[in-house]
Amino acid sequence: MKKLNIKAMVAIGMLSSISYVLLLLNFPIPPFPQFLMIDFSDIPALIAALIFGPAAGVLVELIKNILDYFMTGSATGVPVGHIANFAAGILFVLPTYYMYSKLKNKKGMTFGLVIGTIVMAVIMSVLNYFVILPAYTFFLNFPAMSAPEMRTMIVTGILPFNIVKGLIISIVFMLIFTRMRTWVEKQAVMKSAA
To answer: Is DNA repair a UniProt keyword of this protein (predicted)?
Structure first.
């Protein structure tokens, strides 16, 4: 991990705060289950990763979820949803960052966002099956879902939701990135020169 200077830490703190506010502005999308919410809090994490490197993107995702856990709490008493949000965020941000850093153009960013969406959707489906849904049923004292019920929930709800979420975030990010690309690349060059 590159050593982050004071300016980078301040920028990461600011992007984490913006990310936290965007997390609070979440909303459901019919016909998906009400507990699956879309927010745009991964966009500041992606900007942090592009400017300061992948560790900065992970830090923004981590700080955002810690802030949200302490400010709003959790229905389970433990941060199961926050851990899921953190995992989804880094599974989206890191592949996008690495694909863009290889190609360094608009097509590379588009390809990176598509790869990030696919990686997030597939791995979050697996994590939901083996870890997240069982954790929710355990901590909320709900009756455990059968394997077919969980598969149905994942295939008809969670997997398509994460694909839709990734596509919506990608479209919004590309609208922002086309205007900010020169500035982001200039900041990244300045960071690497420092």
So the answer is: no
